[in-house]
Design brief:
2 helices; mainly beta; 3% helix; four-stranded antiparallel beta sheet; 33 strands; elongated; single chain; 4 domains
């Protein structure tokens, strides 16, 4: 492919071909986001760089004598991607005005490579005098401004020197960050990240130990979520976003997909939080961030190109709790009641401690028995309303606690309420255990915090 160079004076030039780039012509983003950078489009006539051989580029100036130029005749005159190699430039000092970031001296050892068998380098994180290197299948650390010298007994001694990137030491464990550097988050000396290839969520602790925090009660969940595929067997995980919430001291992880998933409520994402205080995953969240970060103990997330600050009462839809990106979501808590696991029990009532407004959305026993939904407590102001509340399937309030009798739905065969005896005794639902889902409608309560402290059930041992 030939090209024309327009020159105002005679000079000598060397041309070198850059790496061939696949033509990519992306569609223009919708307004108002037309300033989003577009993918590079290859133009064969422009995929060259020009190096001038005359000093200052002046007419008849001296030429740069490099001697024999055998290196110009390359067998593969294209760029190379060194996916496992790091390179560093000169120093930058803003106080003295020294800026040598554009200097790469070939006379010095300025490159350092890691094992290419562990994949490409996805993330670099500098911590004190160590550089943590996250590859697809391995995590290592490199010494900064010092190197390790080993004694005859095999003991490592560190010595300062001119070497910028010193000895590279891998951490124990066959874990990496896969191709999800956005899952990385750090707080103090704890680093969090995911390894999609191994279906694990990980934490790198101070002592250099990699711990699989997804195994804290959520191993099966993250195994299924990180390995989610479509009908063709291809992964539909599009992006994994991680961040540390300094407001609640939790690691926030959002796994996002290219398709909606029925198990997730027909949504294309799942967002969960990990709490070091309880060593477990405490909650699922309703927002889908593009990026997250913390600043001055405040948590921010980015969505639709805008930053959003969490945990504050600002002007949004109805100024409610449970509002993310100007959309109000209901709050729900799912728990399992399993006292005396080997005993078949009759769950007679459902009780909770907390604020007014919580409802029983569903309660399903291990036998398949289900309870009718139970509405939120409402304060009666008249005798007629009090009479209606007594015979309605809603929570009743007594001594600042809320309770209700469990009632099975009407049987289609019997045409009557199943196994419910009205009065002081009620049979409820039977099983070894039961799954309870409590729900709060945040739209109903404007800017009012509604906490749920405990949920329990009165049970008796079944007679059969």
């Amino acid at each position: 492919m030939s090209t024309t160079l327009e020159l105002n004076y005679f000079n000598t030039f060397w041309l070198k071909k850059l790496k061939n780039v696949v033509n990519e012509t992306p569609s223009a983003p919708a307004a108002p986001y037309n300033n989003v950078p577009r993918a590079y489009t290859s133009v064969p006539a422009e995929d060259w760089y020009i190096e001038e051989s005359r000093i200052r580029g002046g007419y008849n100036n001296l030429t740069v004598d490099l001697g024999v130029k055998a290196y110009i005749a390359e067998q593969y005159p294209q760029q190379q991607n060194r996916i496992n190699t790091m390179i560093y430039s000169g120093i930058f000092n803003s106080r003295t005005g020294v800026n040598q970031t554009n200097q790469f001296s070939v006379a010095e050892e300025i490159t350092r490579s890691v094992d290419p068998a562990n994949g490409s380098i996805q993330k670099l994180y500098a911590e004190d005098t160590n550089l943590i290197i996250f590859q697809e299948d391995k995590v290592s650390r490199a010494l900064i401004d010092k190197d390790a010298i080993y004694t005859a007994e095999g003991q490592a001694l560190t010595a300062s020197g001119r070497m910028v990137i010193g000895q590279i030491i891998p951490f124990a464990g066959e874990y990496g960050i896969s191709t999800d550097p956005f899952s990385f988050a750090v707080y103090g000396y704890r680093k969090y990240f995911t390894d999609r290839k191994r279906n694990a969520v990980l934490r790198l602790s101070t002592g250099g130990e990699i711990i699989e925090i997804s195994s804290y009660g959520m191993h099966d969940y993250f195994r299924d979520r990180l390995s989610q595929t479509n009908s063709d067997g291809n992964s539909i995980v599009s992006k994994i976003v991680g961040g540390f919430d300094e407001h609640t001291n939790m690691y926030i992880l959002s796994i996002q997909y290219t398709e909606n998933i029925l198990e997730l409520g027909n949504r294309n994402y799942t967002t969960a939080s990990f709490d070091e205080g309880v060593q477990g995953w405490t909650s699922f969240l309703s927002f889908k961030p593009s990026f997250t970060t913390s600043l001055n103990s405040s948590f921010y997330s980015f969505y639709d190109g805008k930053p959003w600050k969490h945990y504050q009462n600002t002007v949004n839809v109805n100024n409610n709790f449970g509002s993310f990106y100007e959309t109000v979501y209901d709050s729900d808590v799912t728990l399992i009641l399993n006292s005396q696991p080997s005993v078949i029990k009759s769950f007679k009532t459902i009780n909770y401690e907390g604020a007014t407004g919580w409802e029983l959305q569903s309660m399903i026993a291990s036998s398949g028995d289900t309870s009718l939904p139970i509405g939120a407590f409402t304060q009666a102001t008249t005798m007629q309303a009090l009479e209606q509340e007594l015979f309605s399937l809603k929570f009743k309030k007594k001594e600042n606690k809320f309770f209700a009798n469990l009632q099975q739905p009407i049987s289609a065969n019997a045409g009557q309420t199943g196994e419910v005896v009205w009065g002081s005794d009620i049979s409820g639902i039977k099983g070894f255990w039961s799954t309870v889902k409590m729900k709060l409608n945040n739209t109903t309560y404007n800017n009012i915090k509604k906490e749920l402290f405990a949920v329990s059930s009165n049970t008796v041992e079944s007679s059969y």
